[in-house]
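To illustrate the input format used throughout this study, we show a single complete record. The first block contains the structure-token representation of the backbone; no residue identities are included at this stage. The design step must infer an amino acid for every position from geometry alone.
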């Protein structure tokens, strides 16, 4: 049986609440994603606490600095045995190569290309003339050639990216179950669609963490996969 690809994004400020939620749904997820906010607030201690659940840990730290510093940071988190760590592709080839070399054999190093919070004007303002889509493709290619395991991409892009990078490891956030509230979003991608399109990891936060019944939500997502 395939491992459950759902990583629960624990974007909760309190460690006890994060732990309780993860414990509740732990039988119906494949791993736990801890972001920069969690890591800055709870550090190694927080990660150790969540490790007790026995699930793989994804440290979404989006590292971006000079190669030497990023490699040293990778070594410093090595003791936490993360299954996945994110870095910024915009840090350049040498930074990505050194980060990958410093990660353990069992750690996937995955690149963030262009943050979805940035639009055309934001890129122009920082001197990037390409549009966000073209820039993301360019950085994905750079990440591939630098020897990274894969990239973070949207459910809309993952099919195309997978065709270009057959053995890539693709982390897909921003998913919404079909029966969930979509608000005014018309182009939602469901966990199942993302998986069918080649996603390796499905990052899911609020559809589980803010559900009235998180356990039922996690179970029903699992049942669609
Ligand atoms: O929206 P949801 O709560 O499911 O988001 C889960 C995680 O995915 C969050 O940690 C969020 O920061 C991340 N995310 C992302 N890029 C997006 C959308 C969400 O990294 N475009």
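Output of the design step:
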């Amino acid at each position: 049986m395939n491992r459950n690809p759902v990583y629960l994004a624990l974007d909760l400020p309190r460690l006890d609440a994060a732990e309780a939620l993860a414990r509740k749904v732990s039988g119906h997820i494949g791993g736990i994603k801890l972001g920069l906010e969690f890591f800055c607030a709870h550090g190694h201690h927080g990660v150790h606490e969540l490790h007790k659940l026995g699930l793989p840990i994804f440290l979404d730290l989006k590292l971006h600095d000079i190669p030497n510093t990023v490699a040293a940071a990778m070594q410093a988190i090595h003791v936490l045995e993360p299954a996945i760590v994110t870095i910024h592709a915009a840090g350049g080839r040498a930074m990505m190569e050194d980060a990958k070399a410093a990660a353990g054999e069992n750690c996937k190093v995955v690149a963030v290309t262009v943050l979805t919070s940035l639009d055309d004007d934001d890129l122009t303002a920082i001197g990037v003339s390409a549009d966000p889509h073209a820039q993301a493709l360019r950085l994905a290619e750079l990440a591939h050639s630098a020897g990274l395991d894969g990239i973070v991409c949207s459910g809309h892009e993952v099919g195309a990216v997978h065709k270009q990078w057959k053995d890539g490891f693709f982390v897909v956030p921003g998913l919404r179950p079909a029966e969930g509230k979509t608000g005014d979003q018309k182009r939602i991608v469901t966990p199942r669609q993302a998986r069918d399109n080649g996603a390796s990891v499905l990052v899911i936060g609020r559809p589980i963490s803010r559900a009235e019944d998180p356990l039922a939500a996690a179970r029903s997502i699992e049942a669609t996969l």
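Structural context for interpreting the output: The longest helix spans residues 36-51. The chain has one domain: 6-224.
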